[in-house]
Amino acid sequence: MKESLQFTHINDQGKARMVDVSKKEETERTAVAYGEIHMNKEVATGIKNQTMKKGEVLQVARIAGIMAAKKTFELIPLCHVLALTKCEVDFSWKTNQILSVHCLTKTVGPTGVEMEALTGVNIALLTIYDMCKAMDREMNIMNVCLVEKSGGKSGHFISTNTEVDE
């Protein structure tokens, strides 16, 4: 029997709704998202040497990413409120001028945490841009994606995106 296609965020009357996850099994769920910011040599040196005029860029971006992941339900319409049990934002230099960001989120619940991980990466990247834009307005945020997701009925997902450095 062919299953009919239905939008999960729209009810029978065509009105927006939050998906009912109350019958879903609670499982441990994790997600990892990734993104990059490309910058000029002057900004990269300033971040590495912690000499940027606005302060320690990576510490501020880390806190911003964690706070954003926790508030995803306030930013993305129809997202569920989730109690994150873990959120980490980490940085690494992919090249001398490309900084990569990973955000790991975790919870135990009936729905996934990939939107929280993606929100954490995006806000960390935007915070870096904000703190460094006076020195390089041409910074480029790129390759934001979901790297891995586990838990729930859809199982374990691992991206085949070759742009992601691990």
From TrEMBL:
A molecular function (GO) term: cyclic pyranopterin monophosphate synthase activity
Annotated Pfam families: MoaC
Source organism superkingdom: Bacteria
Pathway noted in the entry: Cofactor biosynthesis; molybdopterin biosynthesis
Residues binding substrate, per UniProt: L78, C79, H80, M115, E116
Catalytic site: D130
Group of enzyme by EC: lyase
Enzyme nomenclature, EC number: 4.6.1.17
Keyword annotations from UniProtKB, A to Z: Lyase, Molybdenum cofactor biosynthesis
Annotated catalysed reactions: (8S)-3',8-cyclo-7,8-dihydroguanosine 5'-triphosphate = cyclic pyranopterin phosphate + diphosphate
InterPro entries xrefs: MoaC, MoaC_bact/euk, MoaC_sf, MoCo_biosynth_MoaA/MoaC, Mopterin_CF_biosynth-C_dom
Domain Molybdopterin cofactor biosynthesis C (MoaC): 18-152
GO biological process, one term: Mo-molybdopterin cofactor biosynthetic process
Function: Catalyzes the conversion of (8S)-3',8-cyclo-7,8-dihydroguanosine 5'-triphosphate to cyclic pyranopterin monophosphate (cPMP).
Assigned protein family: Belongs to the MoaC family.
Subunit structure: Homohexamer; trimer of dimers.
Protein name (Swiss-Prot/TrEMBL): Cyclic pyranopterin monophosphate synthase
Gene: moaC
